Amino acid sequence: MGEFDLIKRFFVREQSQAGVVLGIGDDCAVLAPTPGMQCLVSTDMLVEGRHFLSTVDPERLGHKALAVNLSDLAACGAAPRAFTLALALPRADETWLSGFSRGLFALADAHGIALVGGDTTQGPLNISITVMGEAPAGMALLRSGARVGDDIYVSGQLGDARLALEVFRGKLALSGEQFEQVRRAMECPQPRVPLGQALRGIAHSAVDVSDGLIGDLGHILQRSGVGARLDVDLLPCSAVLAAQAQAIRRECGLAGGDDYELVFTAAPEQRAAVLRAAEPSGTPVTLIGRIEAELGLRLLDAQGQVLPHQFSSFDHFKS
């Protein structure tokens, strides 16, 4: 099977999404922007052995490859519109491609986003997706908008993906059912796209948790020129993680990464509005801290005592 046969068989579909004038088949895609909207673009790359294991189910990998990009749009409050896929493959494995494209398009269809182009080549397995979305002019959520006094929230639960990684590394043991639960969290994250859009006009700032809560919240603090306190014992987690030792819970929740939840800030008087915004998507949100004028991040336990820590988030060139 040649390159163009591969593309036609597994990735070319009839396009009917709004705003897509021309998708795959020419030198460029042609998109029609919606009047009054701004375009938001993000790119993420997944490399075998660095971002995922060789044993991962290809359908789950297809899902995750798009999910991590949609999570960036969610953090900015954007509606997904289109994406491109650059795919390096060791060989044209039809079984693998069938599963990968099935997972990819299942999530794409769930969010109404079209594949409009990309590239394929032979080489070590590498997946790079660029997503394009839209938000009303001036309404995108940014990292730079946090204000002193803002509440800090996080969506969903934190830490299961890191817990799964520790099992893969042989450092922890879980039952089969427990392991499948945390492994699914690692391999099939759910991008919080509806929540992000619902928070436009309510949240002051947002970021998605890809490298760990401490590091990703740190991006908001740095860009906004503020500090924060986090109540670490309020971090939401699954029953599986809650059953682990305190040190493991804190490590996974604060510095685990691969959660793809949203961390966002909003004024205290918006608490009811935040809950209303989260309700339609069925996404729980938890108040976990507050933005402060003093620079830096302070971690507090349930008694209000500051915790010394050496937690750090993932960095590709330091890990």
3D shape: globular
Largest sheet: 6 strands, mixed
Strand order of the largest sheet: 8-10-7-11-9-12
CATH superfamily of the largest domain: PurM-like C-terminal domain
Q: Tell me the span between the first and last alpha carbons.
A: 38 Å
Give the rounded overall mean pLDDT: 92
H/I helix tally = 10
SS class: alpha+beta
Classify the fold: give the CATH topology of the largest domain: Phosphoribosyl-aminoimidazole Synthetase, Chain A, domain 2
Rg measurement, Å: 20 Å
Strand content: 15-25%
Low-confidence stretches: none
Task: Break the fold down into its secondary structure elements and pairings.
Elements (H helix, E strand, L loop, with lengths): L2 H8 L9 E3 L7 E2 L5 E11 L10 H18 L3 E11 L4 H17 L3 E9 L3 E11 L14 E5 L4 H9 L7 H12 L5 H6 L6 E4 L4 H12 L2 E5 L7 H4 L3 H10 L6 E5 L4 H8 L6 E8 L3 E5 L19
Parallel strand pairs: 4-5, 9-12
Antiparallel strand pairs: 1-2, 3-6, 4-6, 7-10, 7-11, 8-10, 9-11
Helix pairs in contact: 2-3, 4-5, 4-9
Give a concise summary.
With 319 residues, the protein is α+β, with helices and mostly antiparallel strands. It is built from 10 helices and 12 strands. A hairpin with a 7-residue loop joins β1 (20-22) and β2.
Which key features would you list for this structure?
alpha+beta; 60s Ribosomal Protein L30, Chain: A; 33% helix; Phosphoribosyl-aminoimidazole Synthetase, Chain A, domain 2; 12 strands
